[in-house]
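Hypothesis: this fold can be encoded by more than one sequence.
Test: take the structure tokens below, design a sequence, compare later.
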């Protein structure tokens, strides 16, 4: 079956959402082995740093209920999130579901150049109630997909944290959507790098607060979205990053 933009047939998006799990650090390539997957909705707090719980959840960015949802996208290429391969099939692609639930807004923003997706570019969106699980959506650009390196995610984590503190939310969820976009990324390393960037940024703000130069509210939780095949390996990278801050 060929999927073009919003021409999704035979399966409703509600059905597809039950099959799709956009991942913070990776997504699906290949077949799903039931013995190696984690059920949708599974959550685990991998650790705590400076009072912030770092939680992993098997969920997609459209369905996750949180004050702020962060989604990362590359610079636009024609019909990119719907072209499979290299993008994940629509049934497993969180960006496809996010675009659908936003009534095509994600594709319209990117295709028109209103949001170019350049590295570290941000755009804050407040969808009407009921569109997605998050109250607000923050897009962060990843730049040129052909130049992606895992180290980029350290800076992405920093940007996400700083924007969350500006908005004043107590928690946020982040999905990198790398595999959704067709990037074969090292799961554990990318996971750990997001945590390293976010917590480094948080400690910088705490340092400024000690000098009476910051008035941001404390953050209580970071939710990292993961696909069912990569939940545990992502957790390994997260746990390693947490240990680096607590040791």
């Amino acid at each position: 079956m060929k999927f073009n933009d919003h021409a999704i047939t035979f399966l409703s998006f509600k059905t597809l959402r039950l099959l799709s799990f956009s991942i913070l650090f990776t997504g699906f390539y290949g077949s799903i082995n039931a013995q190696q997957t984690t059920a949708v909705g599974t959550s685990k707090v991998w650790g705590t740093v400076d009072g912030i719980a770092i939680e992993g959840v098997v969920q997609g960015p459209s369905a996750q209920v949180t004050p702020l949802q962060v989604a990362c996208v590359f610079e636009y290429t024609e019909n990119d999130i719907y072209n499979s391969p290299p993008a994940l099939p629509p049934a497993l692609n969180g960006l496809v579901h996010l675009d659908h639930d936003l009534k095509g807004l994600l594709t319209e923003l990117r295709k028109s150049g209103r949001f170019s997706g350049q590295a570290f570019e941000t755009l804050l969106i407040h969808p009407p109630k009921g569109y997605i699980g998050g109250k607000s959506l923050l897009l962060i650009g990843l730049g040129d997909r052909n130049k992606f390196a895992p180290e980029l995610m350290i800076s992405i984590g920093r940007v996400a944290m700083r924007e969350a503190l500006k908005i004043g939310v107590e928690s946020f969820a982040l999905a990198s959507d790398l595999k959704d976009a067709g990037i074969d990324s090292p799961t554990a390393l990318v996971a750990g790098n997001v945590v390293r960037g976010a917590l480094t940024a948080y400690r910088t703000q705490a340092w400024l607060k000690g000098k009476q130069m910051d008035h941001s509210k404390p953050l209580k939780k970071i939710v990292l979205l993961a696909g069912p095949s990569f939940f545990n390996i992502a957790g390994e990278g997260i746990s390693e990053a947490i240990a680096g801050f607590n040791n």
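Residues 145 and 183 are 7 Å apart (CA to CA). DSSP finds six helices and seven strands in the chain.
Hypothesis status: open.
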